[in-house]
Design brief:
Elements: H1 5-10, E1 28-32, E2 35-40, E3 46-54, H2 67-77, H3 85-94, E4 98-103, E5 107-115, H4 119-131, H5 137-155, H6 158-170, H7 184-188, H8 192-202, E6 208-213, H9 218-229, E7 251-256, E8 262-268, H10 277-299, E9 307-311, E10 317-324, H11 327-344, H12 348-365, H13 369-383, H14 392-397, H15 401-411, E11 416-421, H16 428-432
Parallel strand pairs: 2-6, 7-11
Antiparallel strand pairs: 1-2, 3-5, 3-6, 4-5, 8-10, 8-11, 9-10
Helix pairs in contact: 2-5, 2-8, 10-11, 10-12, 10-15
Signal peptide: 1-22
Keywords: Signal
GO molecular function: metal ion binding
């Protein structure tokens, strides 16, 4: 059984602040050749560079899902014009540096991490990988086969299966239904030449944002980044695409699957990033997570690891997840719990505790340069405001009890349910009816 606890922490990574412990110099931004470059002096000897390519799943059609992820992986796995794969990795290994990246639904990222003393050796490797990748056919075939092997393994993973089924149902015909890693069918058809051509078209300054976390003088950064960007075409300014998910009705899609238990995942609405409701919803969902866990596992014994979390990307949505042998009883409990919260609301103590926990947790997690860079980058792309990473404490303290009660009632409405397991155990009326179904007689009062 897969635990989604980590998703509660990282699904809203765009909210994470900068580390609070060290006395850091003020961050700043530069515009170099039309690219925004965000810089946070780190106060340590590590340099982290993150190049963001905007667009995510909007950059390719459904039949090409996986092409961007393969392209970003190929930057290091297929070598560069100057170095084959082995030569490239041997040079990195000599100084214990890291270069690599991957693709997500909202953007792709390509990072470099090294100690300051090795920057002169590592920076040219990073630039070559980003701007002069080799896309060697033999290495690409090996890399593609590795990707297909991983995708086949996931097909037998019930958690991965229910994830994808729920996304297909909620976002049918929309970009978010596309899986950045692709499928066995889509990845299997990709060629090195096709992926190289895609990457060449994708890489332009209009899509880029860069983040640097490290103690590197401004003039040196400007010189290095300017020389790198001279190798990259200008392109047209790219505007990120935001969308909303508001299910028009409750729905359920049962799917037969021979597994030991039954997997259920529901997707419902959430507020857009950059709106006043966003921070309040983050806290509301964390309190809901605790209420849901206590009721479903501790009080009713219906599941070992029930979860809820907020996926706070450019198309935000809320998730409810459980594995259970009693799906109908679970959905009655979950829907009655939601209605109870809407009637009675959360409490001041819950809000106070969650604010304290959230702020402490996020500061704790921002103690590395990599995490700092990720927070700045995702705030810039998702919220259009990297400075938001610096103000999370004050932002969260402003959220009131009325705010979290209001947003919970506003966005947790109709639910798109995905179900895999024994369909005979599902009474679909319990999932799709407007009002919460009656609680079974053997359910403890709550």
């Amino acid at each position: 059984m897969r635990s989604y606890i980590h998703k509660i922490i990282i699904a809203c990574c765009c909210l994470l602040p900068m580390a609070a412990g060290a006395q850091l110099k003020d961050p700043y931004e530069m515009n170099i050749s039309g690219v925004k470059v965000i810089v946070q002096p780190s106060g340590n000897d590590i340099v982290e560079v993150l190049t963001i390519i905007k667009g995510g799943v909007y950059n390719y059609t459904a039949d090409k899902a996986g092409i961007e992820n393969l392209a970003i992986t190929a930057l290091t796995e297929c070598g560069t014009v100057k170095d084959d794969k082995n030569s490239f990795k041997n040079k990195l290994d000599k100084v214990s540096a890291q270069v690599g990246g991957g693709a997500g639904r909202d953007f792709s990222s390509f990072r470099m991490n090294c100690i300051r003393a090795d920057l002169e050796q590592v920076w040219p490797l990073y630039v070559d990988a980003l701007t002069q990748p080799r896309f060697d056919a033999k290495e690409f075939a090996r890399m593609k086969q590795d990707a297909i092997t991983g995708l086949k393994a996931e097909e037998s993973n019930p958690d991965a299966a229910i994830d994808q089924l729920s996304m297909n149902l909620a976002f049918a015909g929309k970009a978010y239904a596309k899986r950045p890693q692709g499928t066995v069918a889509t990845v299997g058809k990709l060629t090195a030449e096709e992926t190289k051509a895609f990457y060449k078209k994708l890489l332009n300054r209009g899509r880029l944002t860069m983040v640097v976390v490290g103690e590197v003088p401004r003039a040196e950064l400007e010189q290095k980044i300017s020389a790198m960007l001279d190798r990259i075409p200008a392109g047209q300014p790219f505007v990120v695409k935001k969308d909303s998910y508001t299910p028009p009705a409750n729905t359920i899609k049962p799917e037969q699957k021979d597994i030991a238990t039954n997997y259920i995942k529901g997707i419902t609405g959430a507020p857009q990033p950059g709106t006043p409701d966003y921070n309040a919803f983050v806290l509301a969902m964390r309190i809901f997570y605790t209420r849901h866990f206590v009721e479903v596992r501790s009080n009713q014994g219906l599941s070992y690891a029930p979860q809820v979390w907020f996926s706070g990307g450019l198309t935000p949505y809320a998730n409810i997840y459980v594995t259970t042998t009693e799906p109908d009883k679970y959905v009655a409990v979950a829907r009655n719990l939601i209605e109870k919260i809407k009637r009675e609301g959360f409490t001041e103590k819950e809000l106070k505790d969650r604010k304290t926990g959230y702020i402490s947790e996020t500061y704790y997690r921002q103690e590395t340069n990599s995490a700092m860079a990720g927070a700045l980058a995702s705030n810039e792309v998702i919220h259009g405001n990297w400075k938001r990473a610096m103000t999370v404490k004050d932002d969260m303290q402003k959220v009131s009890l009325a705010d979290i009660n209001r947003v919970f009632s506003k966005y947790i409405t109709n639910i798109t349910w995905a179900y895999q397991g024994d369909p005979k155990k599902v009474n679909q009326a319990l999932y799709i009816q407007k009002d919460a179904p009656p609680l079974p007689k053997d359910v403890k009062t709550f």
